[in-house]
Amino acid sequence: MGKVCGSTSSRPSARFARALGFVVPLLLLAAAGCDIQVGDGRKATLTYTDDARAAYEEAMRSYRSKSWEDARALFAEVRKLFPYSRYATLAELRIADVEFEQEKYADAVSAYREFIQNHRTDRDVEYARYRIAKSLFRDIDDTFLLPPQEERDQGTALEAYRELGAFLRDNPRSRYAEDVRKMHQAVQGRLMRHELYVARFYLRQDIYPATIARIDHALKLFPGSTLEPEALVLKGETLMRMDKPDDARAVFQKVLDEYGGPFAVTAKRFLAELDAQKAGKQGT
Description:
It is built from twelve helices and no strands. By secondary structure, the chain is mainly α. α4 (86-101) packs antiparallel against α5. It is rod-shaped.
């Protein structure tokens, strides 16, 4: 017969078998409406909790050794055998982690969301929300076999952006906040680049109002993006082509006043060009 991968057999361990012998009679008695008295009631509770902890720790050993299928099966048994323990709740969360670690991000998102739905007040809801955001972030395609980022559908990126932003609004002091901010900024830059890609497409087609509308939409939707000066220079260039020199001048001046870097240099060059055009008109 084939050998099961991982260090743990998919069959219940001896500890699980003992737990089964203890738990099943209790559940049958409860279902029949009988009072449950197993010697010292406090001792029975401790035995249940100790067995739940031991079963959970056994599942965690498979998890830490990256025996994912064994870990999934063992966590599922913890939930089945010890449904009224804290370890059943933790096992449900770890099953979602197994999906995440296997890079099954869509399944992980579903599992984390189900955990939140089932345990709205649990202290690990913050962690589950963080992992949802991280799953969506990692699910954004970035392989070299695909078209450039700007040309791809941005549905997953937009969902990740919203989830990351919601997490930061609700948990500004979270221990995960720094990592979430980095992801949020990265996704924001990607989405902004997509908007500028579309705006440049309209500009090449000489569809100037659509170009301006797309840039303004991007600036409103993604405030604080590191690509703001690039967007503003593109807007100023479009306004020049629309023969709106005063509006263009105001945009370029904003780049000079509020931003540095290479786009400030570009804005300064456009301002010089506007000055030359103005001087030429005055001389004629």
